[in-house]
Design brief:
By secondary structure, this protein is mostly beta strands. Helix content is about 5%, strand content about 40%. The structure holds 6-O-phosphono-beta-D-tagatofuranose.
Amino acid sequence: MASPAGTATSPSPQPSPFAELVKGPSGLDKVVLRGLRNCSAEVCLYGGQVTSWKNDHGEELLFMSSKAIFKPPKAIRGGIPICFPQFGAHGNLEQHGFARNRFWTIDNNPPPLPLNPAIKAFVDLILKPSEEDLKIWPHSFEFRLRIALGPGGDLSLTSRIRNTNTDGRPFSYTFAYHTYFSVSDIRQVVGFSPFNLFSALPQPCEVRVEGLETMDYLDNLKAKERFTEQGDAIVFESEIDKVYLSAPSKIAIIDHEKKRTFVLTKEGLPDAVVWNPWDKKAKAMQDFGDVEYKHMLCVKPAAVERPITLKPGEEWKGRLAISAVPSSYCSGQLDPLKVLQG
Ligand code: TA6
C-alpha cells in the first residue's frame, strides 16, 4: 500500500485513519501513525526520526528529552535518530553522519517491500544527498525508510540503502538506529523484597539488558579497547558506552518497576551499542536534562565494527522490530507478586 500521506512539499492527499501528515508544535512536519486502541507512533520528516511510540494504554515508550531542540541543524535528542553514513565521530563528517539532520520526504511510490497485510499504519520515507551533502560525502545514494506500526502495537523500521553512483565507485558506511528507550530508573537498585521477608539476598535490579552476556565489546570509554562482557544480564551503575560485536538478533530490556520488557529483533545489523551518559555527561549536554539519564537507555542495533560496502546498483537492508510486552520475569526470577498470587 503506498504511503498514505503526501510529501512534505506537495499537498497531502486525504489523510487516512492510519497515517496522517500534520504540523508538529515545533512547526516541523510529522506523520502520525495510528494503530489499534491507543497505539500510535510519530515520525518527524526532519531526520526521518521516530519521535514517539505509544502502547495501547497511550503510554510513551521512547525517551524524548524535555530539552530536545526541534530546530535544524540540531539532531532531536530522543526517539530513534538514524545514524548514517557513519556511526561515531571520525573524518570530516559530524558525529553520527547527516541523515538525522536532513529533511526526508514521503515516498509515494517505493519499490515493492513485502508487508504483512494486517499492517495498515505505515509510511515510506526517502532521503537522497543534496549538492551540499555530496561535497562532504561524495556518493550518490537512495535511502528508503519504512516505519510501520503493527496491529499489536509493535514498531518496525526497515532501511534500504542503494548505491546510485554513476561513476562506478563503491561506498562504505556504518549505521545505527540510535534508539532511546524510556525506563523507570536505570540505576541498579539493590533492596530487600517485602515479599520475601526471610531472604537476605538482594532483589532484582530495576533495569537490565539480556542477550549481550559474554559478548565481546569495544569500550568507547576506554579508547575503544576490546573486552568480553561478563556472564550475567547487564545492569547499570555508571556511564556506559559499549559497542557489542556480532550480537544476537534478539535483545531484551527488562524494566522490573514497570513490569515491561522491550524485545528488539534486528536484521542486517550485526552489532549493538549500549549507552547511558550518567550524571556528569548528562549535565554537559545542553539538550538533555541533568537527571534525565535515570529514565533512559539507548540500545542501538548497528553496523559499526565492519562497515557495509555497496557497489553501484547494490542495495542493503537493515531492519529493527521492537515490541513492548508485559513481563513478570527478570532473568528467570518470578515476580514476587505472581509468586504470592500463585
Ligand atoms: O553511543 C555512542 C555515542 O556516540 C555516545 O558517545 C554519545 O555521544 C551518544 O552516541 C550520543 O551522541 P549524539 O551525537 O547524539 O549526542
